[in-house]
User: What shape does this take?
Amino acid sequence: MPDAHITLTAALDGDSRAHFGEMLKRSFDVATIDHGSNGITVSVRDDVPPAELHQALKQLLRVRRYASGDCLFVHEAPNQQNADPQPALEAKGEVCSIAQGLFAFRGDFLRVRTALDSRVRMIAGHCGADELSYPPLWPIPLLQSINYFHDFPHLALLASGVEPEYMARAAFANRFRKGSGNAVIACTAENGLAPAHAALAPTVCDCCYWLLRGRRDVVDQISTIYGQVFRNESSPDGRLDRLTAYTMREIVMVGSEGFVLAKRQALLDEVAGLMVDLDLACNIKAADDPFFSNDALQRNAYQNLSRLKYEVEVPLYDDRKTAVASINLHEDYFSRNYDFENADGARPFSACVGFGYERLTYALFCRHGAKLAAWPRSVCTFLELT
Ligand SMILES: [Zn+2]
Assistant: This one.
């Protein structure tokens, strides 16, 4: 099993260790991380040359040094319930596991999730956002143009159909009939599967920029989209804070630099206000995307240093935390990659604010307890749940 050691003059603090471990696991199948007195020793199950692993460790530590944890906003909320509400929600049948990372919702959990979307949709309305809707299957070039498969191979999920020929369809139908014992289907030509022309949407905003591709008359605009998104990950202990399929709403801004920066600031203020109204403790702080691969680590540092991404981090129970929303400034990334301009020939800026609803709902149940009837009246009134 390849391993690598890196010498440190001073040990990492608890937060840095957690962040280091989390970032390492994005790229490698980590067996052990040993924080010794003179450094860190990491062992991975991947077949990676030790020199490459060592290089990755060095870059991760550099990123960690840049990661400032710069906090924009803190809201303290005393008397956190501090117990996992999921067992009680599952016992009531409001949260039902379908498979690893996939859940069904009903009852109060679903009512709260729906109410949260109403509130966020209202924020979008205040900004004058235009509502859009599109399918959760996106053409491969939409994601390839923004290097999604290179940056996030660990999160990608592709959708493939069966080859449009009689023999391929007959072979597929026969091989995977009821009782065949096949719980998984290898995506191979032998199984009759066609190349994937689409991938499951990993977020809801990218399609907004894709719709502008090639345009030379882009004006300042705000959109909002609600949708189901998919990422190839799940919580190892089956909790609701990391799902393979979940719902989100984004508010998306495209336009001049001044317009996008002003709207992003206004939305940051709205998000902070929402957390206060929900009586949810939070930190809104600088963050980075879970890029895969070594060259992307440099971009984590750039994102963090340039304050391109902020996350709204909330406590769940014990030491468990999660990010329930993110505020992202892309500068001209999408206009360059999808080739769109405003009427003056300039590349528009873009930004988005996204809310992950299952996480936000879960965080609220962690905060106020598994019984909706016992929640503070102010929160129920705010969510119009009374
Ligand atoms: Zn987005």
In short: The chain has three domains: 3-66, 71-137+201-382, 161-191. The mean pLDDT is 90.
